[in-house]
Write a structure and sequence with these properties.
CATH class of chain A: Alpha Beta
Radius of gyration of chain A: 17 Å
Number of strands of chain B: 0
Shape of chain A: globular
Order of helices and strands of chain B: HHHH
Distance between the termini of chain B: 82 Å
Oligomer: heterodimer
Order of helices and strands of chain A: EHEHEHEHEHEHHEHH
Largest sheet of chain B: none
Radius of gyration of chain B: 26 Å
Number of helices of chain A: 9
Shape of chain B: elongated
Number of helices of chain B: 4
Distance between the termini of chain A: 11 Å
Chain lengths: 254, 133
Amino acid sequence: MRTLVFIPAFNEQGAISAVVRDVRDELPEADVLVVDDGSTDQTAEFARAAGAIVASLPFNQGIGAAVQTGYIFAESVGYDYVGRVDGDGQHPAAQLLRVLDKVRSGECDVCIGSRFYDTRSHPADATAYKPALLRRVGIVLFRWLLSRTSGQRFTDPTSGLCAVNGRGAWLFAHRHAPDYPELELLQRASRQGLRLMEITVTMRPRLAGKSSITPLKSAYFIFKALIICSVGSLRAREDELSDESSVELRARPC
Amino acid sequence: MLSLAAGHAQALTGHARIFIAVAAVVFSLVILELIRTHRLQERYSLLWLATIVIMLVVAAWPGVLSEPGSLLGVQTPGLAVFAVAFLAMLLLMLHLTATVSRQGENITKLAQELAVERAHRQVLEDAREASDG
């Protein structure tokens, strides 16, 4: 059983070496891939020096394309399990290990690490992770949208800390989600009948550099996500994947 | 462009017709130059050449627009020119944004394939180095 951990990164030279080393220490059995999204700094060189395989996009294509690239690589090699952490050091590899183990134990097909405690069961801890206002608006909205499609409750649908098995990797490699990959991919996974799960994880503030998400971008993303979700529910289930590929998906061993 | 003087209100003035004709000729020269230097694909050049033909027809027989104009509820031929041209522009832009979307997706696919190939090559090279050393 082979595991791949991939790290989408755009101009993260300050953090990438530590992130790669952290993953290699915690998951010595896994291969580590850094998807360098057309970085203009030395992200690719540092990642390679730290022992990662590097998939360099020739120019910046955005987070959605970078994430999909990770799954395409996983598919092309045939990994059984695929984990993902952010390139800024926010996600401790030890937490990824917990998320990954939920998938490796067969409990679910897709597992996300949530930065939030469920405010219903842990009201006191609700303040642990405090994103900017617009991001928070987006998260609340996405939660609602995702709960509506999946019939499941998710506290953190924009988390980049997640793990999937071969079925999840196959689905995520074959469908492109340009802007908000987390939300859209989860929506698709739940429509395809994959078993989704969310566990609470603790995160760190980013190690270096700055987030690519600005208030204006947040607003723009929210708007686009709304379009994606509403169009997504208009696109009936049958076209999610053609009949042929659905069969292939079902036939894949978990 | 439009004379509002009595008797002229229903037709394009001679001035406007000359303007349209001259614009069409200049336009066609630009397009021929773009095709000649391979900067415009033939399928788009057809579209533009059709536009030029329509412009010339309107300049020669301004009456042809009264029919589509009245369909749109526009009584004045001068305004009909703008109404029809505006709709054509909207359609063209829709077509172009659809083309740009498709091309953007193709570019992404190419970039991803290249990135994945680069990663595969690195894995192979590393394996070769390991077996050599």
